[in-house]
Fold this protein.
Amino acid sequence: MMFITWRKTALLKLKMRSVKNKYSTPSLPRSAKALRIGEKGERYPVLLTAMLVVCLFFSLQGRGYASNPAALLDSANSAYAKGNFEKASSSYEEIIKMGYEAPEVYFNLGNTYFKMDKIGMSVLNYERAKKLAPYDEDLNFNLKMVNQRTLDKIEPMPKLFLEEWWDNLRSMQSERTWGIRSIAAFIIALFFLGVFITSNKLFTKQLGFWLSILFVAFSVGLFFVSKSSYNNMVNQNTAVILSTSAEIKNAPSETGKKLFILHEGTKVAAPETQGEWVRIKLSSEKVGWVKRSTLEFI
C-alpha cells in the first residue's frame, strides 16, 4: 500500500490555533486533499495570496522573513518535496514552537520523521494530530502503517460498553462544536421559557414549560460532553516511548527491579509523574516506572 505523503497547505487556510489559547479558537477546516508522492501542490488562489501578503506585511515588521510561519510552511513543504527531510522537520518544528498548531502540520511532521526512520517521533506527531482530527482517514491510515514498524505489539485495554460509547460520542466533534451546541440549546430553552411566561393559553404554556426543561437538559448534557472532550485533549495522560529501548522498573528509582523493556514508538498510558520518573500502564498486569527522558507526552 502506498504511504500517504505530505499535504500542501497555506497557513491562513489552516487558520492555525494558538498554543497559548489552544482550544478556545475555531476548529480547523480540512485542508487540500493529501498529495501522492511526486505530485505538485496546487497554487494558492488569488484571494488567499492577497491575504497572505497582507499577513506577511504586518508579521514581518520588526521580524526577519525566516520567522514568518507562512514562509516556514512553504519552506518545509518544499524541503520535503526535495527529500531534504532534516530541513523539513526543523521548519515544521519551528512553526509549532512559534505558537501555531494544526493537524496538518503534525501530519506533515509525522510523515517527515517516518521518512527519516524515526518511528517514535513519527508516532508522537501522528498521535498529536489525531487529538485534533480523530477521524481523518489519511492520518489513521498512516498511523496504522507506522505502528506496524514498532517492536512492541500492545493490545489496547478493553473498555466497558458505556466507557467506549462515551469516548466515541465526545470524539465525534470538537470541544468547541459541542460548546456551541450547548449554548444554542440554552438559547432555545430561554425562548420556550419566554413562551411559557407570556402565553395565555394553557396548552401553549405547558408546551413551553416542558420544552424549556428539555432544552436545558440538552444544554447541560452538551456542556459536559464539551468539557470532557476538552479535558481529554489537554490532559497529558498518554505518552510515546522515544528511546530505542526503555527499562520499566517496579519503583521510581535506579535501584528498582527491572520488570520489562519497551521500545521506540510504543504508546503508553502515563497517569502519574514523580520527579524524573513516570508511572506507565499497559494493562492491569503491566504497570511500572520509566525515566521521563525516555518518553514524550502526546
